[in-house]
Amino acid sequence: MSINPYTSLPTTSTCASLDVPKGSVPGETVEFKGDVTDGTVDALAVDLNDILSIFEIARTQLNITISYSGYATLDTQNITAIVWSDASDCSLLSESTLAIQNPVTYVNYTAASLTFIRDYVVMAVYVIGGTDAKVNINPGDGALSVPSCDVSASLSVLTYNVTYLKEGSFKITVFAYNLASNVTDSGIIGAVERIVDLAIFGNSTILTPPGSGTWRVVAGTDQLPLENIVCVWNMGTNYGDTAYNVTLLNSSTPHEITFSYGQEADVGTQTIHVNCSNALSSQNLSMDVTVVWDNVTLGELTCNSSTLWNHSITCELTVVRFGTGACFEWDMGDGKPLVYYQDGYCAGYVPTASPTYIQVGHSQNMNSSVDGRYAGPQVPTFVQRPGTPHRHHNYTTLHFYISKCSVVWCTTTMWCAWPLDEGRHLWATIHE
């Protein structure tokens, strides 16, 4: 085997490699390795210190390891290692230093497990042991870089302020190391956005059935994008809470739900509550919804016409669907007060002083009747007709009945006189 002179050996090679450690602990065995990929004979030589060298040759074995356990104290050694092969251009020279150091024996960190983005989280790092040790932190978000710090004492405490600029769950790793050792500690830190400006919108009136509505939570002008929050909805006194996981909520992406009120007990005002939260913040929102049960569907209104004043007129209103909350208002066209029929939940406004039918009973198909009385306008004074008793009245009472939503106007039988002119009167008899 021919070995080239020391001064002509290359420091890089495509077929030879050397593994020379940079550090070790006192009394620990140190291994030096030489490998080649070509040739039938190779050799490895290592200068372990100023007075000791080891040289080994191997046949048909392309890798050699030299072990040494003689570094007993803290020190720095100059190491020269050479690997040769009988193959052409297959040798390598390495010149380096070996640090004999006390190892790092312990590292630990403490920090809050949750923080707001753009706020700093305070980290305390504890390190024990280690010659010329350093501490470095990887916050885990792929963007932040924390400078390394030197540790000189046997017990060191370092404090860091770390700020995350995006939401997420990050694995933070603390490294305490020197040339002879590397000790780590790791954990998870979550960073979230503050919930400060949300609003609720949606249907303020619901007709049921079907009772369906849509409501949404939107981000206000002061709200930055939120990720992975939970919104808990309560749709009123008859319903429990329902939670929704919201992946993203921002100015262009609201959180929207649909819901149907399907119980007659829902009729009236229901207050919707929603609480949106993440691990560190939350906001409560609410709005009122008026639930109206069913709808009123009207058909044709027909009235028979009469040209005789104070004669009966019959009006019939076909009710296709009565609904809950129905309110019927009758205006007979004579400028007199309106007459109302109303159910338990009249959706419209009915003046307190307005005449109201006396309800006897009803069903949705309106096959039962409603009876009531209406005080009509003042009628001219009754006068005596020749051959009949004299009668004086200053009013009359009109009776009407509603049956299947029809109205009939009639009067009791009596004689009436209406003054015309020049002392003449118009006489008429009105029959039921």
Mean pLDDT: 78
Beta strand count = 33
Query: For the CA atoms, what is the radius of gyration?
Result: 50 Å
Write down the oligomeric state.
single chain
Which regions contain 5 or more consecutive residues with pLDDT less than 50?
343-347, 354-432
**Largest sheet, if any?**
5 strands, mixed
Shape: rod-shaped
Q: Count of helical segments? A: 0
* Count of the separate structural domains: 4
- Note the gap between the termini: 143 Å
Sheet/helix structural class = mainly beta
Describe the structure.
By secondary structure, the protein is mainly beta. It folds into four domains: 95 residues, Sandwich (Immunoglobulin-like), CATH 2.60.40.10; 89 residues, Immunoglobulins (Immunoglobulin-like, Sandwich); 96 residues, Immunoglobulins (Immunoglobulin-like), CATH 2.60.40; 134 residues, no CATH class. 0% of the residues lie in helices and 53% in strands. The chain is built from no helices and 33 strands. The strands form nine sheets. It has a five-stranded mixed beta sheet with strand order 2-8-7-4-5, with no helix packed on it. The chain has a five-stranded mixed beta sheet with strand order 10-16-15-12-13, with no helix packed on it. A hairpin with a 5-residue loop joins β32 and β33. It is rod-shaped.
